[in-house]
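Recap from last week: sequence in, structure out.
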Amino acid sequence: MTMAGDTILLGIDFGSGGCKVSAIDTDGAMLGDASVEYPTYYEHRGWSEQEPSDWYAAMCRALKKLESKGVNLKHVRALSFDGSTHNAVLMDDSMTPIRRTIMWTDQRSVEECAELRERHADRIFRTAYQMPSPTWTLPQMMWLHRHEPEILRRTRHILFVKDYVRYQVTGVAATDHIEAQGTLFYDMKNRCWARDLAELAGLDPSALPDLVNPTDLLGKVTARAAADMGIPEGTPVVCGTSDSAVEDYGAGAIEPGDCIVKLATAGNVNVMTAEAHPFPTTLTYSHVIPGMWYTVSATNAAALCQRWFRDLFCDGEKLEAEKEGINAFEILDRKAAESPLGANGVLFHPYLQGERSPYWDPDLRASFTGVAISSTKGDLSRALLEGVAFSLLDCYGLIREMKLPVKRIFLIGGGAKSRLWSEIVCNVFNLPVRVPIPGDASYGSALLAGTGIGVFSSSAEAVLRCLKIDREIHPDPAQAEEYAKLFRRYKAVHDALAPIYAMK
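Predicted structure tokens:
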């Protein structure tokens, strides 16, 4: 519970599956958090869209939940936002969204990506440090230009997830440089929009927002938003940045060689570097810490697989969890723990929405293999946890291929709360891992809020002062050896199935 006179820094995260809010004090202690899910719409195979109005509504509900836990929102001194990247909110003259937002997991722009790679790959990579894939905003806009041209003709303003909500809160429209790097419309060397790349997609460059830094003050909470949120009118709002960047930052990855392994909706292996290392099969972004960069190798579906499995196959477990007053994932963890290493021969490949690293293959699909009549739900649950860990190890292979030094590994994301899943990842990687607390995006955003108003002298000082490590896990040599054998089988199954999924 907060007491009168307390200073609260608020971080608000818009992830791929929901909104999470975290309140901290000026020493980084967690005062409370709350989250609310919002829907994703999959109207056609490979499509993935969200409704912008859902984000604001989820935030307001999450803040009410936070207040119900004893956090006095009247003491919020500053707030900041983060959100999943690549997701363009297209708006008309009145700043009203024209259509649902195409999400970064959407795969509809496969043909556009093939064309961009054939005709403009060098130009795009030289400017934006990335290769075209359906993840990026540029090919998504190309698809709209061809299939929904009226939408782009009506588009006068573009914001991104956290920017759109921040605009609703402050009336100020802008985005930050790191978020902009997630579009393929950004010139990495000159730190500005690449107008020629926007025009390549049929987009009027004038629709792109002003660029600021993540710790810049960007307006104050308006009277209308204050009434909706329960936060005092006039509270300073700090810009914030992408969820990936602020996760790395908030987890303590602030030095070259720090590595983040993320078990969130998507899964990431991110390595911090002192300079940019563009590579055709990874992603490259600048860091929250000025002058630093990070390289991303990422799988499309990590905890998303858990959520899919829970919602499709686990009604009984959800009822059981409700009776016990716990999360359904805890029930699934129990069942998974009853299955031995290797899940009694069941393997899972987590390609529910195609795959990014290391394959960049939108045709890949998820699968359980090795299922027998004796297989249990616990076997399937454990295979899912192991399969995501194998996919992350696949991603880590790119980091080793690039010869980027790794000094220490931080394990973050909702999945890191599971001790079983954390141990599986540790043994699959055969490396020690640190689990920071809380180590998530909303916490990092709260630190940025404090940095933006001068509570901390710098973004680095905020982390050094506030970060805590929950636990450190060391691999079991025997388990690591067994997982190394299973990973070879995992790779062989991928190699066998990939050509089948590519058949038209």
